[in-house]
Amino acid sequence: VKVEILRDKCVGSGNCVELAKWVFAQDDEDGKVLLVAGSDIPDSDAVMEAALICPVGAIMINGKLV
Amino acid sequence: LNRKRRTEDDNPILELDMGEGSNSSNRWPFVRECPALPPKEYDERRSKCPVSAVEMWDGSQAWLLTRYGDIRAALRDSRFSADSSVDSFPAPNAAIAAARKAQKGFVRLDGVDHSRQRSLLSKYFTVSYVQGMRATIEEKVASLLDEMAAAGSPYDIVEHFAEPLPIFMTCLQLGLPESAVPYLLDRTKVWMSSDSLPEESKKAADDIVDYFRDIIVERKQNPLDDMVSNLVHQSVMKGEITEDELLWMLHLLLVGGFDTAANMIALGTLTLINHPDEVRKLIGDPARAPKVVEELLRLHSVAHFTAGRMAREDLVVGEQPIAAGEGIVAPLPAANHDPEVFADPAKFDPDRNARTHLAFGFGIHQCLGQPVARLELAIVFQRLFERFPTLRLAVPESELIYSNAMIYGLKSLPVTW
Question: Residue B367: closest CA among chain A residues belongs to which residue?
Answer without folding.
Answer: A13
